[in-house]
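S.,

Sequence below, as promised.
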Amino acid sequence: MRHGGRILADALAAHGVGRVYSVPGESFLAALDGLRDVGIPNIVCRQEGGAAMMAEAQGKLTGRPGVCFVTRGPGAANASAGVHVARQDSTPMILFVGQIARADRDRDAFQEVDYRRMFGGLAKWVAEIDQTDRIPEYVARAFDLAMSGRPGPVVLSLPEDMLSARCEARDLPPAPRPVPGVSEAQRAAVIDALAAAERPLVIPGGSVWDQRDADRLARFAGAWGLPVAVPFRRQHMIDNRLPVYVGDLGIGMNPALGRALAVSDCVLSLGSRLGDTLTDGFTLMNPRGQGRRIVHVHPDPDEIGHLWRADPGIAACPRAMLAALADAPAPARRPEAWTAGLRAAYLAWQTPRDTPGAVRMERVMAWLSGNLPEDAIITNGAGNFASFIHRYFRFKRVGTQLAPTSGSMGYGLPAAIAAKLHHPDRTVVCIAGDGDIQMTINELSTATQHGAAVIVVVANNGRYGTIRMHQERHYPGRVSGTDLANPDFAALARAYGGHGETVTDDAAFAPAFARAVAAGRMAIIELRLDPEALTPGATLSQVRAQGLAAQHGRAGD
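The prediction came back faster than expected:
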């Protein structure tokens, strides 16, 4: 006889869960007790949004569901931010939510929420476990669904009395994973489409990718002379130093690459959904008249035809397709000039443009790109600061980039903590904006408690930079709600038990970073940026002038 919390913990152990993230609550005390008995480490976080983002990052790192526990009501609402990231980023994740006792349902009890309705549009599956002896069944299904097709989040609600009840329950071992594979006809269809193309573009995608996949992609693209462009915040899917890598398609993309997408005659999507960020709001490719052949390989058959008329559309694991294509003999005619031109445009885009001030993000990024170990992990949330990472940092290996394609602020620090706990021997750097970091800055305490020696580089320009940029474009000079009063970030790091420094000159960054590494504990390096510094290509004054010019043009019309 075991209580439900122990049955649940045993089920998680059977599925290989080595760590969970949580903010404790009285609604799932039995689960906490079970985790203690089984010996699964519980990373106690400071806010449920941070805990859920750590679990999501764990899913990216391992390809298996990251696990998070939160309490009912407000805890679940906070955690929804991480569930949204997992949904949009196609990351396997399981969120367990405490729930009121079954006998109190539908009485508007304390913190009562219908989680099926709350998470119905965010998760792949939402369920409430009513019978203690069915816990293993629900957990097994949650793991299978989180990893099947297009991976994503699953939410399981745990009524408090169900979890504390005792019963006999049969444990269920993990089910064997489906055997991936592609037919010879499917492989031949892809090869024929590429061989006939004059301006092809290969776009890999998805969150579950490993180094073998990257090596196969490099071998295939290199032999065929095919240009590879990655989706928003998926730069780590192929070594950026290779001559076939031509850049990223997403927010702040190289305009030359955007034009190439617009005129390409064949797009091979290996797991990408080819959504709005990749196509610049569907201006470079439009589902109403896509204007080119799209070969769409995706694990979820519902994605094929969802936006694009695929020719062919192949419902299969893109990694399996890549394995089948890796050693395909190259055709006599290869698009070498097309690929070389795109690579040259990428290299030109890499040439830094000086931004204002004594500390320049482009120089910091160039230093990090040239000096960090190849397996160092870079994390970030959302903001204009991230465009400097996308443009100037060259990723070399798979699993070295953790960033939300959903554009969620505050993601970088929780993701960095999860990465450092999973890879304690690797350098983990969170690059954050001053507004971005303050969404989850309380997780510095989590890093200290659990010994996650992450290095956080805070780009401080005193504002919500992305929103200010849009504000100046549409309402130039009318500043509202975008300026920030910030703390002394270096002092704050020290208050949390970490190492903190402030950098006010480019030359001071490298020695400050060396000291942060040597400190061996959580560290913040605050970069004091010029308030004029806004994007890699424009200052605040330039964006405002463009907004005024556009405003005057509209008035003239």
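Residues 100 and 109 are 7 Å apart (CA to CA).

Coffee later?
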